[in-house]
Each structure stands twice: as structure tokens, then as C-alpha cells.
Amino acid sequence: MTFDDALSLAQQQAPSLRAEASRLQAARSEAVAAGELPDPKLLLGLQNVPIEGAERWSLDEDGMTMRMVGLMQEVPNRDKRKARRDAAQASVQRAGASREVETLRVRLATAQAWIATHAVERKIQLFNQLFEENRLLAEAIRARIAGGRGRLTDSVAAK
Q: How far apart are CA 59 and CA 69, in angstroms?
């Protein structure tokens, strides 16, 4: 696997990056509603309903019984709504920055792992080449000794 392939695969499959992307999406969703007015509230109520006597639980018989139906809307001042919008935008920017930092962390960890793996693979490859060269050297030394041109102490060099 090439270095670029490893980085690309890590960015596609890293769970932490998916979590950061979800945080960013959540911050964006919250930012949409941050500057809006709160939802209106429907008020329903009864007051002074008699619970004893002949007019018990009657809503029409007693003159003191009151029914309430209303709609209430909170309207925070403009500066407070602007502050909420600004805070939500800052939250979106912070989530975006956090995502970028996590992307860099994933890339760094992937790069370090790839380099470590590549170094080990390269060492193994070099050791295999060294062992093959030593085998050939040992055969050449044995042949020289058998031919009478080498010394017996040369056989130790290959080992």
C-alpha cells in the first residue's frame, strides 16, 4: 500500500472523523435556529372551580369560575438574539476547526504507522538480501578452500 493510499483510506474510514463531521452538522443545525424567536405557547387554564357543594365541578354555575385561553410569545431583545446567533456561529467555527485538527491527527498517526511499517518491511527485505549474499559468500569461500586458494579462517567471515 502506498503512502497516499494509506492516508486516503484512513481519512475515509476513521470513526473519529465521522464523529467530528456529525458534531459539525449538529452545530450547523443549531445555528439555524439560534436567531429565531422561541416557539409560541398555548395557555389553557381554569381558576376558582368549586369542588364542594351543589355547584361542585361546574364551570357554568359559579360566577367566580374563570376560563383562560391564551397564546404567549416571548420576544427577546434584538441584541440577545444577535448574541445567540454569534455564539452559534462561533460554535460552528469551533466544530470546523476541531474537525480539521482531528483530520491532521488521523493523518499524522497514519503517516507514523505507515513509516514504521515501511521501515520494518525494508529491514526485512535488506536482511533477506544480506542472508542471500552471505550464503553466496560462504559457498565461494568453501569453493576457494576446496580449490586450495583460500584459508580455513576465511570460512568464519561469512558467519
A: 14
pLDDT digits (tens, 9 = 90+) for 113-151: 999 999 999 999 999 999 999 899 888 888 888 888 877
Rounded Cα distance, 7 and 106, in Å: 8
Residue showing cell 507514523: 112
Q: How distant, in Å, are the alpha carbons of 79, 107, 110, 123, 131 from that of 4? A: 49, 10, 10, 21, 32
> What are the backbone dihedrals phi and psi of residue 47, each rounded to the nearest 5 degrees, phi first?
-135, 150
Candidates 114, 106, 120, 103; CA nearest to 4 is 114
Q: How many CA atoms lie within 13 A of 81 on its CB side?
A: 11
**88 to 29, 69, 96: CA distances (angstroms):** 9, 35, 12
Contact partners, residue 69, CB within 8 Å, separation at least 6: 43, 44
- What cell was used for 42? 398555548
How sure is the predictor about 57, in pLDDT bands with cuts at 50, 70 and 90? Answer: low
Distance CA 85, CA 105 (A): 30
Q: Whole-structure pTM over 0.70, yes or no?
A: no
Query: How far is Cα 29 from Cα 31, in angstroms, rounded to an integer?
Result: 5
